[in-house]
Design goal:
The complex is a heterodimer of chains A (about 240) and B (about 240). Chain A is an alpha/beta fold. Helices cover about 45% and strands about 15% of the residues of chain A. In chain A, helix 1 links the parallel strand 1 and strand 2 (about 30-35). In chain B, about 45% of the residues lie in helices and about 15% in strands. Chain B has a seven-stranded parallel beta sheet with strand order 3-2-1-4-5-6-7, sandwiched between helices. The chains are: A alpha/beta (about 240), B alpha/beta (about 240).
Chain lengths: ~240, ~240
């Protein structure tokens, strides 16, 4: 299996997309650490993945708004598994008030930029030495279609920022043979009001709702040597909503 | 094998990258039609791929500057295999005088825009009815990093135009479940002077020369259901010189 002997850390992996990502990496043989703001949920998701894929996993409480959680989560990963090869920065704030723009308070702006942009940087910086010592690694940052169609206020801004972070980290970490790429999904299985969903679907070229499973192919492409000559790129997987040439 | 029972047409497939693409598709179980400006080379390559993969492979002359050649090539594919599921618009003019801009003659400008942009539209239009009747299909257009970094000549302009074509065709063909995506490679195995190679590798984040094999992962990602929720996108696989977020 292509990821046998590899160690992956996925943030926001207690449920939904993050859990699907963790399961996909485990399906190719990787050992996986699942971080989540809800520690109990992270532990049960880790048990689910271990049972389904017969690989070693670990579930950890990781609130991405708390620097020490990120640092201790990565320290635990290194202690338990001896290193790290793949980091998936999946956790992020979305929906509800985060789609507002100037109406958000300064404190809220600081929070979304911290969780969606600064926290992935902290995690990337913390995993770099281990990846470098193992001859290289892969970082996958979760962006969003909202970055490219731009209709979701602070959330859109933060997601375009993480696409910028992907480019800049790719440049900075290339000398350690660490590739950094991103995925910008469309609307997948988030809980959304019917009218919002309808508008989103009408913008898509492919007229069906996306599912987290639609992103597995992209994640595994980016996490494996199938993309070995690619770095600094964000792939938009949104059923054809964003029209970026 | 993920492409069992599928039929693919690859243009410019007598040698180099196109041949690698055709071989990769056959390796996943597809029957393949190989078009090339050099008809004898196309037949030779077809026989080689068939011997290597055990798939049915045909080769024929296809000068992409001639509409009747494009029509005959698509027709030969339909006659031989009964349909087409995957079109790879790989053929194109590159290097040499095509890196010039205003110094090119008007006729040369018409020629590069025809071969690199209009010929792919003609091929796409011709394969559409068969793909539609088979429930859908995949078109992959060859763009280039030249459209995204160091846009200095008619070649770069034509390649940015084909990325625009990818978006537009994705929009027009989505109703028939035909996904249209692109690949923008960096400098791979083209015959170019050493100093140009050195300059390109210097601009890259990954400090090695790309090889056609580096593009197999992205081709198979786009040609299979691994990318089923993705359309209208061009994936840049160039070792990192382009700075598109």
């Amino acid at each position: 299996m292509e990821l046998e002997g590899k160690v992956a850390l996925v943030t926001g992996a207690g449920s939904n997309l993050g859990k699907v990502y963790a399961d996909a990496l485990a399906s190719l043989g990787a050992e996986v650490v699942l971080g989540d703001i809800d520690g109990a949920l992270a532990v049960s998701a880790a048990e689910d993945v271990a049972a389904a894929r017969r690989v070693r996993t670990l579930g950890l409480e990781m609130d991405m708004d708390v620097d020490e959680h990120i640092e201790s989560g990565i320290a635990r990963t290194l202690e338990e598994f001896g290193g790290i090869d793949i980091l998936v920065n999946n956790a992020g704030l979305a929906r509800g008030r985060w789609s507002l723009n100037s109406e958000l308070s300064n404190e809220e702006w600081r929070k979304i930029m911290n969780v969606n942009v600064v926290a992935p940087l902290i995690a990337a910086r913390a995993v770099r030495p281990s990846m470098a010592s193992r001859g290289g690694g892969v970082i996958v940052n979760q962006s969003s279609m909202a970055a490219y169609v731009g209709t979701s206020g602070a959330y859109s801004v933060s997601k375009l920022a993480i696409s910028g972070l992907t480019r800049e980290l790719a440049a900075e970490f290339a000398s350690d043979n660490i590739r950094v790429n991103g995925i910008a999904p469309g609307i997948m299985n988030g809980r959304l009001p019917e009218d919002v969903l309808k508008v989103a679907l009408s913008r898509q070229l492919l007229r069906r709702r996306g599912a987290p499973e639609d992103l597995v192919g992209t994640l595994l492409f980016l996490a494996t040597d199938a993309s070995s000559f690619m770095t600094g790129q964000t792939l938009i997987v949104d059923g054809g909503s964003a029209h970026r040439p | 094998m993920t492409l069992n029972g599928k039929i693919a047409l690859v243009t410019g497939a007598g040698s180099n990258l196109g041949k690698i693409y055709a071989t990769a598709l056959a390796g996943e179980g597809a029957d393949v039609a190989v078009g090339d400006l050099d008809g004898a080379l196309a037949q030779e390559t077809a026989a080689e791929i068939s011997a290597q993969t055990g798939r049915r492979v045909i080769g024929f002359e296809m000068d992409m500057e001639r509409e009747d050649h494009i029509e005959a090539g698509v027709q030969a594919t339909l006659d031989e295999f009964g349909g087409v599921d995957i079109l790879v618009n790989n053929a194109g003019l590159a290097r040499g005088r095509w890196n010039l801009l205003s110094e090119l003659t008007t006729d040369e400008w018409r020629k590069i825009m025809f071969v690199n942009v209009i010929a792919p539209v003609i091929a796409a239009r011709l394969v559409r009815p068969s793909m539609a009747s088979r429930g859908g299909g995949v078109i992959i257009n060859q763009s280039s990093t030249a459209g995204y970094s160091g846009l200095t000549g008619s070649y770069g302009v034509s390649k940015l135009a084909i990325s625009g074509l990818t978006v537009a065709l994705a929009t027009e063909f989505a109703g028939d479940s035909i996904r249209v995506n692109g690949i923008a490679p960096g400098m791979m195995n083209g015959r170019v002077p050493q100093e140009q190679i050195d300059r390109m590798v210097d601009m890259q984040l990954l400090k090695r020369r790309g090889t056609p094999e580096d593009l197999i992962g992205v081709l198979l990602f786009l040609a299979t259901d691994a990318s089923s929720f993705m359309t209208g996108q061009t994936v840049i696989v160039d070792g990192g010189p382009s700075r598109r977020p």
